[in-house]
Write a structure and sequence with these properties.
Oligomer: heterodimer
Number of helices of chain A: 0
Structural class of chain B: mainly alpha
Shape of chain B: globular
Number of helices of chain B: 16
Radius of gyration of chain A: 11 Å
Number of strands of chain B: 2
Mean pLDDT of chain B: 95
Largest sheet of chain A: 2 strands, antiparallel
């Protein structure tokens, strides 16, 4: 399941389903609304499961 | 008996969880030390204070042997329903006050009775182990993404004074599991006593570093109320200082022994869960993603029912947000010969542990005798090479 929003993209962890929504960021992890997925650190792992790495996330276009 | 059902083009799929009510055992498991207190109260014999340890380490492995293993899995299509069934999560919520109740009852008993030295030690070690399993309750809760569940994790982890666990475990151990970088994954040839000296400080350091990084991103100082490690520690301090203030200095040895054995339970679990297992490094320098064969599994019915399925550890690491009732058995996984209670005792006897586990490790299908696929203790490398051959 991959979803899109108007201005920002959503990126989903293929393992646990966690969604990084650029319009929301991730307040708990310290990424403010509007923080782009591509700007997340290269060693970013899924904040929910920590099993999948940044490059595993799936974007609407299938390209990150 | 509750049955879950879903309509599919191929017909109706149904599933009745025969363990549904048996999961109440995880809720009552923390009460075990109170069996000793109750017996002592009713009979006046301190011998009763030995019973809780016997229930854990004699009855536990015996029941695992008696009741055997369970390979039953829910149909995958019904897992979303099973995960939404509130009954299962309510059990984890209720386990939190059960841990507090038992801890306080035992503390009161110790604080108000002149026990013999051995009675005191036996009861304190028993409550230490029981509250080590509070880390297991915190583990199940801490993996969830709801605010209430993460708060309950922090609250229950305050009992064993191990509040940094869920930060370190979720964001550190799960990321680094089965690699030499992980202080919470044991290496082949490493005894549990060596492992503890690496695991306990390593876990604390990694938790603090991860929380510091998170708070830094938020523009907050590490030493603040927003620090989720410190939040749980504050509850621990209130609890333990309160006990010393109420019952005096007898609480000091009680709390030191209690805390140590609680931490030791986690060390024991970490030691057996990934012993020697190694994720391969990819061409890009990163490790392969965690697979079910990167954890040791125990499918034993009795101990799994006491521990919210913790021992189905392979599926937990491959899918950490899955709730305990949905964790699956897979065939051909690294499997332990007994449940955790029995394996802990074996781990405490390193010569026996190495004898049983090293050969078992080398025989795993994905290792097949190849030492380059094993996470080896550097100090044991030459001895292991001499015994099991050189890297392929």
């Amino acid at each position: 399941m991959v979803m899109t929003s108007n201005r920002h993209n959503q990126y989903q962890c293929p393992g646990c389903g966690y969604i990084y929504d650029e319009s929301l960021g991730d307040d708990h992890e310290g990424y403010p609304p509007g923080f782009l997925f591509k700007d997340l650190p290269e060693d970013f792992v899924c904040p929910a499961c920590a099993v999948r790495y940044k490059e595993d996330f799936q974007s609407p276009s299938g390209i990150i | 008996m509750t049955t879950h059902a879903i309509e599919t083009p191929e017909g109706t799929v149904t599933y009745t969880d025969h363990k549904r009510w048996w999961w109440l055992l995880s809720l009552v498991n923390p009460l075990i030390p109170l069996v000793g207190v109750l017996g002592h109260w009713l009979t006046g014999s301190e011998l009763w204070l030995l019973v809780p340890l016997g229930m854990m380490f004699i009855m536990g492995p015996a029941f695992d042997g008696l009741f055997g293993e369970d390979e039953n899995n829910p149909p995958e299509i019904l897992v979303p329903q099973l995960e939404q069934d509130t009954y299962y999560r309510v059990l984890t919520y209720l386990t939190v006050p059960v841990h507090y109740f038992t801890f306080l009852m035992v503390a009161i008993w110790v604080g108000t009775h002149s026990l013999s030295w051995w009675g005191f030690i036996a009861l304190t070690i028993a409550i230490g182990f029981a509250d080590g399993f509070a880390i297991n309750t915190g583990h199940e809760l801490g993996h969830k993404r709801t605010r209430m569940e993460t708060w309950l994790a922090k609250i229950v982890l305050a009992v064993p004074a191990y509040g940094h666990f869920w930060i370190e475990h979720n964001r550190g151990h799960h990321r680094d599991v089965a690699t030499p970088e992980d202080p919470a994954s044991a290496r082949m040839g490493e005894s549990i006593y060596q492992f503890a000296r690496r695991e306990i400080p390593g876990a604390f350091r990694r938790a603090w570093m991860l929380e510091d990084e998170r708070l830094c991103r938020k523009g907050l100082p590490a030493w603040s109320i927003h620090n989720e490690v410190l939040q749980s520690y504050l509850i621990s301090i209130a609890l333990q200082v309160g006990l010393i203030a109420t019952f005096g200095w007898v609480m000091l040895p009680f709390l030191i022994i209690h805390n140590f054995f609680s931490w030791w339970v986690l060390t024991s679990a970490n030691y057996i869960e990934h012993y020697g297992l190694l994720r391969a490094r990819q061409a890009d320098g990163k490790y392969e993603r965690c697979q079910p064969h990167h954890s040791w599994n125990a499918n034993h019915k009795y101990s799994n029912l006491l521990l919210f399925h913790l021992q189905r550890h392979s599926d937990h690491h491959a899918n950490p947000t899955r709730r305990y009732q949905s964790l699956r058995h897979f065939p051909d996984l690294p499997s332990l010969p007994s449940g955790y209670y029995g394996m802990y005792i074996i781990a405490y006897l390193p010569a026996l542990w190495f004898k049983m586990m090293d050969a078992r490790l080398m025989r795993l299908p994905h290792i097949n005798g190849d030492l380059s696929k094993v996470n080896i203790n550097p100090d044991s490398l030459s001895a292991i090479r001499a015994r099991y051959g050189h890297d392929v």
